[in-house]
Amino acid sequence: MTRHNRKKMDRTAEIARETAETQIQLRLNLDGTGISTINTGVGFLDHMLELFAKHGFFDLEIEAKGDLHVDAHHTTEDVGICLGQAIQKAVLDKAGMHRFGSFTVPMYESLAKVDLDVCGRPYLHYEAPLRDAKVGDFDVELTEEFFHGFVNHSGTTLHINVPYGTNQHHIIEAIFKAVAKALHIATRLDEQITGVLSTKGSL
What we know:
The chain is α+β, with helices and mostly antiparallel strands and about 200 residues long. It has one domain (about 5-185): Ribosomal Protein S5, domain 2. The protein has five helices and ten strands; from the N terminus they run H-E-E-E-H-E-H-E-E-E-E-E-H-E-H. The strands form three sheets. The protein has a four-stranded mixed beta sheet with strand order 1-2-4-3, with helices on one face. Helix 3 (about 75-90) runs parallel beside helix 4.
């Protein structure tokens, strides 16, 4: 594949997921401008995904319906699964891609550091001072569930570390922004990279 053709690739994905608990339609463009239309029925999750798209320069559309009369767990986890599937599909064979990305985001008193590798090996290290609490109607523990779904279906090794922070909203927002920025870095195409960035020749 030539360098010129790599730049012309359509790195988009459409995902549909329907279970007894959720129905989700998702569209992603890795090479977008940060435009989003998000409707999951979970207000705080919508906010996090909107800023994820904005700061990652991803175009993202999500329409989700879930069993919110139970709680937001299934909807949050399944949206994470769908976003992971979309990333896995949109990166194609990963040719010409940076693969690694790191970013640190300060959010007032909170700091989130994210390091990731879009390598096909799912792993999540998650360390954040989130208490058993809610932000609005959102259980903060669902942040980790979202990223478990994301890594398992995107094949991403993801390390999320929040060394300090007290405001639960600030902590979670810093995490989503840092993941978006690190993922943007990792998925950029580089003319210096021929094939995939691995001595094995494949990822």
